[in-house]
What we know:
Layout lengths: L4 H14 L3 E7 L9 E6 L3 H19 L5 E5 L4 E5 L3 E6 L1 H7 L1 H4 L4 E6 L1
Parallel strand pairs: 2-5
Antiparallel strand pairs: 1-2, 1-6, 3-4, 4-5
Helix pairs in contact: 1-2
Amino acid sequence: xxxxxxxxxxxxxxxxxxxxxxxxxxxxxxxxxxxxxxxxxxxxxxxxxxxxxxxxxxxxxxxxxxxxxxxxxxxxxxxxxxxxxxxxxxxxxxxxxxxxxxxxxxxxxxxxxxxxx
Length: 117
């Protein structure tokens, strides 16, 4: 993993943008969250899209940084997949679950670094 979490988060965001993720958000939680500095949150339009996004992010991070996520939770079929890269957490959501969990509201104290709607 890179020493700079922002570098990793930007690489993840670039991959998501290239693969047509929807409503990409990069949220800075430094000093607010005890387990991560940055959240990357996005929406995938279907189970197939969520799976493709998850696989491609994991592949590119491994290729670029030599290691994958510390942990992956959830399944595309469930509408939510989480990749834990230590200081960067990626949340891939279906539209319904993103609205239901409302992480942007839950972590509203965080600073929005980037929003690509």
